[in-house]
Amino acid sequence: MTKQIVLASSNPGKVREINQMLAGLNLTVVPQSDFKVIDAEETGLTFVENALLKARNATRHTGLPAIADDSGIEVDYLNGAPGIYSARYAGKSATDDQNLRKLLDDLAGIPEAERTARFQCLMVYLRHEFDPTPIICQGTWEGHILLEPRGANGFGYDPIFFVPTHNCSSAELPSEVKNKLSHRGQALRALVSALGHTHL
């Protein structure tokens, strides 16, 4: 029997990415928007706090187990910014392109050697709203910020995130390669491995 899990996100790029990675498992991941769940207020000060807030909100409104992640990009020169504010760096209703442009503006004139950055993803799984032992997994993807966007795959900051191992931007990678390397791919694989059959 296929188990249904609610994904505490309405971001179509994220839903697509996670479903691609879960293909072949006996799990159907349904976005919370299918249940008319309103996004949780992200009031946490860390990625893990925000992920737990989102998962708890999704499971409370649906009665289903929930997966949530909070992810973003940390730039060393900016002391870890945008960090947890990555999705709203240029303002609450900013587009991906506006956020990306703000980051490029904030790094204007900064040499490549000082543009080191990483994507972070904290992914959590809650069996129910009051689950006292959530599964928490982390993925980290190292790189640096390009001077200009490159590539059309992916979303968010992918076009300006340079992947040294592949000598291109994240947005220039085929999705199956990106899913293997990415912070979200790492966190999700760790989560799937941790879930086993006992936690489902």
UniProtKB/TrEMBL annotation:
Gene3D superfamilies: 3.90.950.10. One of its GO terms (biological process) is nucleotide metabolic process. The keyword Transferase does not apply. Its cofactor is Mg(2+). It comes from the Bacteria. The keyword Cell membrane does not apply. Its EC number is 3.6.1.66. It holds the Pfam family Ham1p_like. One of its GO terms (molecular function) is ITP diphosphatase activity. Substrate binds at residues 9-14, 71, 155-158, 178, 183-184. Binds 1 Mg(2+) ion per subunit. InterPro entries: dITP/XTP_pyrophosphatase, ITPase-like_fam, RdgB/HAM1. Mg(2+) binds at residues 41, 70. Keywords: Hydrolase, Magnesium, Metal-binding, Nucleotide metabolism, Nucleotide-binding. It catalyses: dITP + H2O = dIMP + diphosphate + H(+); XTP + H2O = XMP + diphosphate + H(+); ITP + H2O = IMP + diphosphate + H(+). The active site is at residue 70. One of its GO terms (cellular component) is cytosol. Pyrophosphatase that catalyzes the hydrolysis of nucleoside triphosphates to their monophosphate derivatives, with a high preference for the non-canonical purine nucleotides XTP (xanthosine triphosphate), dITP (deoxyinosine triphosphate) and ITP. Seems to function as a house-cleaning enzyme that removes non-canonical purine nucleotides from the nucleotide pool, thus preventing their incorporation into DNA/RNA and avoiding chromosomal lesions. NCBIfam families: RdgB/HAM1 family non-canonical purine NTP pyrophosphatase. Homodimer. HAMAP family: Non_canon_purine_NTPase. Belongs to the HAM1 NTPase family. This is dITP/XTP pyrophosphatase. It comes from Sulfuricaulis limicola.
